[in-house]
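stage 2 :: seqdesign
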């Protein structure tokens, strides 16, 4: 109160009150004088003046509301009164604060990730104008580009500037020359890359146009982390040579630590490709900056003409692809945008349910304060002032809950990042990019204030509109009325049930998707398989014979190890996707542009199918006789056989792979010698498509040379026991077979399969947690409603039993009234879910958004939970002693 007195003194509050009182007295005196002049007695004249004038206290309140200094004074009074009131009801206050802290904390955690991934601009100069070049193809977007595409895009200088090519496939190169060779992550780029992304050059320089030409000098730019960790921050390293893949490269520059890219490379190399090549293999991405004044729509319109020009010069598959650009940030986050927004919506629903629970608490509390509120109204407090006081209490509760929610949100965010699937862009490999910064703090404050108004408004309006006479006559215990008088609370509980069922149906659909994914057979046996990657970048592996020799020697050494069943090598792994190439079937006219179709392409060693236990359907596997000197052969999968040979025998045909894509792809017709089972190459959630495999010794050397610098050689080892137990001898054997090349990225095939569904598992886990929390809060809400109703109706129920009602009748009465509210909420929620589940269709697999099993089982489950929550207070009602109930007051 001392603070209030100081505030009044500061803003002349006492003087202002005196002025208002003097003004009121003046008007009263004038009216009384006028009454006296008409012959009315003095006492009666004064009384009539006061009656006509109205409630003086209420008029003072209204005058205060339009006076700013006094308004601030009343706000402080409201805060002081709210603090005293809430401190007297500690149990209700603590429950409300904890409930809100959990809801606000969960929202803070999810929003901190969304803020980092979706809202924050990219950390590059003028990021809003940076776009990625794409090609719209039937069924989606193609994000990778070839050299001819890059060459024609970079010439569109009226539309773009700083057009740069760079690879993002996680290529690796061997850093040799020291006691311990190691694989490091490298990125090939063109000269405009560093200018486009504003890379700070700490020392030296970046690549020149001369160094970007084919067969240009061997130069490299190091990252700050590699410079410090590997070379001890050598101040004179610029100008020195380091060995990469057995070749000396001159260090010409160091990129500062402030540059961030995902994934973060250890070093950068110039692409040095021939811009005049007809090689149409797509293995890198292209980005550029819109020129000032050029809009996205204008750029795409211009690229439509470029597409037509390109199609006249180069045969393509598919033929209907159209060049386009999209904002780079949109492309980076396109794979996670939907799932993050769905999770934010889900956690928002949990907060709404928490708000409904707190609103119910405040309604109960307001019912017990009817006499207090009636007295305040009787002495002159207007409804607006009462509502403001009650809203002050609710906002104070929510801000306190929000402060605690920040702490909850911080730990929830850490937990969220700990279980994240590891493929969420822009958060960093360890999640360090996600922080509770000022944006998140303002979001939490805003959520807390809005939450306080949302859950406080209904109780405030409900409490402020009561009948003063009835409220003053009611006792404290019976002031809440019976079940029928708790309409506001019933509406809130029905709303909780509806929101809970929406969340639970969404979670159930994701659980069904998870089960469907787990039931998918990948087409191979992933157990007891260890995979390793070996970089073959460098001049040593420009010819196929060198790669085939390492593959042969490596598999022989591996198979000789105790505990190893078999071993193989390939250019990639199932689940992770392969390289798509077009095909022509010899003797058959083209049907899709210049081709008959296409499929995923991979080169493998002889025992590849045995190692993975991929079944042979017809024909034969590769063997030791399939060499560079023998007839070219190819093995296809069932999906390819069904698509291109639906009524004929593919084993009688030959195919030509990648005809016309460039000199690197020149190949002879290949005889189809086998048909194998389908493998899920693009992930378990994608149907197997056409696949073709060729022997590693028969790969055209042009493909080997270009593929070696961007794709590591993958080793696959099947063991009898735990694959990791043989890690050391396997690494040693491969070093010996390859002449000392290091291996990296050791991973079991089981882990790769699990990781391929990690994002779906992550979504399912969080939705299940949110759905469970929603159900728990809804059950607590309906339990609280019925328990309070029974308490308020104790006397009524006692009279019923005294007049002959049985315990079962009372129990059924309470259960029926409670389940009526629950069923209404379940029906509303189920109907709403039919529309909302369409928003998560892209997250589902093997289940429809209107799955009948989910839409039948979930409402029944929630109804049973509600029944249990209602049954507890109903059982208590059935045990009421009529004699005691009749004295209940």
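stage 2 :: out
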């Amino acid at each position: 109160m001392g603070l209030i007195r100081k505030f009044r003194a500061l803003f002349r509050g006492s003087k202002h009150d005196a002025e208002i009182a003097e003004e009121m007295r003046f008007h009263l005196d004038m009216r009384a004088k006028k009454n006296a002049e008409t012959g009315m007695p003095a006492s009666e004249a004064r009384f009539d003046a006061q009656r006509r004038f109205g409630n003086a206290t209420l008029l003072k309140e209204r005058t205060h509301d339009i006076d700013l200094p006094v308004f601030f004074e009343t706000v402080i009074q409201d805060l002081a009164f709210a603090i005293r009131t809430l401190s007297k009801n500690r149990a209700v206050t603590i429950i409300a604060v904890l409930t809100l802290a959990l809801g606000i904390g969960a929202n803070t955690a999810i929003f901190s990730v969304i803020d980092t991934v979706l809202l924050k601009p990219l950390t590059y100069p003028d990021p809003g104008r940076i776009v990625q070049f794409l090609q719209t193809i039937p069924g989606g977007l193609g994000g990778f580009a070839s050299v001819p595409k890059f060459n024609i895009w970079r010439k569109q200088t009226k539309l773009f500037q700083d057009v740069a090519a760079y690879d993002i496939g996680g290529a690796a190169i061997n850093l040799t020359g020291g006691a311990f060779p190691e694989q490091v992550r490298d990125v090939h780029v063109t000269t405009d890359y560093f200018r486009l992304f504003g890379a700070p050059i700490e020392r030296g320089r970046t690549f020149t146009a001369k160094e970007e030409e084919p067969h240009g000098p061997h130069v490299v730019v190091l990252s700050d982390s590699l410079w410090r960790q590997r070379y001890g921050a050598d101040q004179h390293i610029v100008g020195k040579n380091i060995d990469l893949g057995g070749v000396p490269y001159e260090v010409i520059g160091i990129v500062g630590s402030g540059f961030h890219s995902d994934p973060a490379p250890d070093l950068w190399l110039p692409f040095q490709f021939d811009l005049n090549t007809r090689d149409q293999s797509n293995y890198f991405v292209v980005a550029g900056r819109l020129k000032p004044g050029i809009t996205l729509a204008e750029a795409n319109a211009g690229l439509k003409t470029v597409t037509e020009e390109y199609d006249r010069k180069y045969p393509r598959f598919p033929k209907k692809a159209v060049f386009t650009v999209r904002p780079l940030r949109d492309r980076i986050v396109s794979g996670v945008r939907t799932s993050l927004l769905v999770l934010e919506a889900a956690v928002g629903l949990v907060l709404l349910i928490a708000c409904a629970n707190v609103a119910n608490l405040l309604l109960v509390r307001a019912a017990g304060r009817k006499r207090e509120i009636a007295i305040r109204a009787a002495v002159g407090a207007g409804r607006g002032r009462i509502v403001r006081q009650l809203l002050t209490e609710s906002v104070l509760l929510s801000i306190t809950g929000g402060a605690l929610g920040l702490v909850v949100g911080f730990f929830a965010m850490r937990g969220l990042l700990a279980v994240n699937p590891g493929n969420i862009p822009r958060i960093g490999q360890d999640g360090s990019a996600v922080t509770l910064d000022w944006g998140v703090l303002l979001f939490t404050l805003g959520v807390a204030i809005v939450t306080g108004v949302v859950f406080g408004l209904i109780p405030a309006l409900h409490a402020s509109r009561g009948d003063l006479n009835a409220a003053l006559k009611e006792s404290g215990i019976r002031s809440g009325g019976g079940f029928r008088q708790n309409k506001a609370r019933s509406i809130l509980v029905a709303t909780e049930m509806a929101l809970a069922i929406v969340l639970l149906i969404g979670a159930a659909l994701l659980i069904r998707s998870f089960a469907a994914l787990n039931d998918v057979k990948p087409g191979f046996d992933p157990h007891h398989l260890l995979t390793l990657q070996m970089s073959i970048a460098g001049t040593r592996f420009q010819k196929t014979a060198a790669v085939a020799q390492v593959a042969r020697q490596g598999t022989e050494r591996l198979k000789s190890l105790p505990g190893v069943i078999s071993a193989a090598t390939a250019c990639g792994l199932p689940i992770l996707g392969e390289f798509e190439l077009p095909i022509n079937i010899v003797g058959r006219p083209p049907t899709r542009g210049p081709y008959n179709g296409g499929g995923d392409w991979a080169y493998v060693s002889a025992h590849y199918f045995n190692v993975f236990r991929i079944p042979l359907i017809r024909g034969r596997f590769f063997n030791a006789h399939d060499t560079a000197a023998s007839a070219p052969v190819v093995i296809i999968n069932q999906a390819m056989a069904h698509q291109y040979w639906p009524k004929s025998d593919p084993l009688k045909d030959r195919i030509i792979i990648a005809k016309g894509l460039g000199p690197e792809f020149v190949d002879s017709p290949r005889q189809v010698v086998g048909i194998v089972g389908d493998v899920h190459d693009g992930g378990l959630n994608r149907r197997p498509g056409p696949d073709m495999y060729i022997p590693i010794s028969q790969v055209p050397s042009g493909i080997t040379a270009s593929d070696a610098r961007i794709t590591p050689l993958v080793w696959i080892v099947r063991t009898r026991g735990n694959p990791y137990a043989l890690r050391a001898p396997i690494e040693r054997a491969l070093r010996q077979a390859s002449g000392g090349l290091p291996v990296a990225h050791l991973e079991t095939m089981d882990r790769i399969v699990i990781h391929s569904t990690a994002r779906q598992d992550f979504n399912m886990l969080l939705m299940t947690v949110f759905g469970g929390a929603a159900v728990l809060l809804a059950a607590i809400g309906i339990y609280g409603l019925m328990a309070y109703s029974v308490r308020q109706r104790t006397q009524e129920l006692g009279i019923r039993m005294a007049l002959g009602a049985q315990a079962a009748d009372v129990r059924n009465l309470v259960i029926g009234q409670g389940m009526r509210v629950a069923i209404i909420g379940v029906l509303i929620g189920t109907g709403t879910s039919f529309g909302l589940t369409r928003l998560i269709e892209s997250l589902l697999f093997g289940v429809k958004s209107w799955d009948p099993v989910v839409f039948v089982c979930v409402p029944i489950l929630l109804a049973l939970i509600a029944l249990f929550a209602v049954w507890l207070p109903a059982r208590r009602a059935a045990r009421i002693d009529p004699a005691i109930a009749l004295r209940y007051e």
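stage 3 :: structure notes
- Residues 383-418 form the longest helix (36 residues).
- Confidence is low (pLDDT under 50) at residues 1-13, 475-485.
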